[in-house]
Amino acid sequence: MKLDYRKTFLIGFGFLASSLAWSLYNAYVPTMLEERFALSTTVIGTIMTIDNFFGIIFQPIVGILSDRTHTRFGHRMPWIMVGLPICAVLFAIIPQMYTLAAMMAVLIGFNFVMSLWRSPVIALMPDVTPRPLRSKANGVINLMGGLGSIIAFFFGGKLSQLDPTNEAAFLMGTVTMLVSLLMLLLFVREPSALPRRAKQDPALMAAWQNDRRRRIEEQHRQREEAAASSSKLSRWEKLKQEFFALSPGELRSLLFMLFAIFFWFCAYNAIETFFTLYAVNVLHLSQGEGATMLTAFSLTFVAFAIPAGLLGSKLGRKRTILIGLTGITLAFIPVLFMESKLIIMILLAVGGIFWACININSLPMVVELASKDKVGSFTDYYYFFSFSAAILAPITFGAIRDLTDNYSLLFVFSSVAFILAFISMLFVKHGEADPS
Asked: How far is CA 37 from the centre of its chain?
């Protein structure tokens, strides 16, 4: 088997749009909330978790619904085609809100619609990629996501320095999101989508209709069989059959893997949410300069995204993740004692390399345990735990900062969370690629 890099890069435009939007959002919305409305750090952290509350509530539902969606465009694309342009429009008007009520209305609308298309865009890759190649493919996908973050932090940072209202930076994000959608519509075709030549070929049209009918009938049959057998199973057995269908060892590995994901996203999301405020209050930089510093992290992440996937295929996903957790912890601990912009940028760059080792190989480990028709659901287990972390971390660190009045504790919080993730990963025994 050989990875189709062209197709994977094109699928990555969806992740580029998502990553760019969240990078700009997390870099500038906290500073806008503090400067315009004088909110406390805890309140800012709580507002910044709205997207993750919606992710936990709606994304699992959307993942299941997209598995069961049968249209001429496929399973996932209908969700993306509707959600992404709405988000792009809402995104452009965020910086134009100067009353708290208007700002909250736009933020809530934007976050809600984002929760409707993010899971389908992530599930596109496993849909079209054989299991042993998913670490490599995830490297390409995350390379595109990292490129989105670089565009956000570098160009967004420069635009923010020229336009402190951030309207230019967010408009740039909107345009990039719409271009990404256009690339998906023009060049990405799901395996279950109607073939492009079907209008001219009645045989292709009939084959697609028969395949669609077969898929729907098979899903109905599986649900009926599950319902018929559910009365004979204990509550725990039902849980395993309906949601995991795994052996006890695989289930244990999945749970510890999800705990590790929770802890390392606690570390990551705290930094992502508050680094700009850290730069303003501790390093005494502008918000644009603080956002630009994060380019170092994203740049090395992008540069090492594909090598990290290759490393995961060669050394094993678990070993590569453990290397990443060790490296990023050792890179972030010295930040506690530094106030030099250059040295901190170098440490962030080192951290980006090891974050690639972690992030590129984690989703493939989770979906490796899924059957083909449950990829969307298992993708949402991954996002449930990552979103739970993204809810808890900003609120927790916000409270810590308000109690101590010390933004420097940001990297203490993150280092401890990375260590807990390392301990959890030691108990994971499944999730490597099946060589067959």
From this structure: 29
What's the CA gap between 191 and 214, in Å, rounded?
A: 14
Where in the chain are the domains? 5-189+238-425
From first to last of its 436 residues, the chain has per-residue pLDDT tens of 688 888 899 999 999 999 999 999 999 999 999 999 999 999 999 999 998 888 778 877 887 788 777 777 877 888 999 999 999 999 999 999 999 999 999 999 999 999 889 878 888 888 778 877 877 787 788 789 888 999 999 999 999 989 989 999 999 999 999 999 999 988 887 776 655 555 556 666 666 566 666 766 665 666 666 555 545 545 455 545 545 566 777 788 888 999 999 999 999 999 989 999 999 989 899 888 998 999 999 899 888 888 988 898 889 899 999 999 999 999 999 998 888 889 999 999 999 999 999 988 888 888 787 666 566 667 778 878 888 898 999 999 999 999 998 888 999 999 999 999 999 999 988 877 654 4
SS3 71: strand
Q: Tell me: domain 5-189+238-425, CATH 1.10.3720.10, correct?
A: no
- Type of residue numbered 398: G
Which three-class secondary structure state does DSSP give residue 16?
helix
For helices 5-37 and 167-187, angle between their N-to-C axes, nearest 10 degrees: 160
15 exposure class (CB count in 10 Å sphere: 0-12, 13-18, 19+):
buried
Residue closest to 52 by CA, chosen among 418, 428, 386: 386
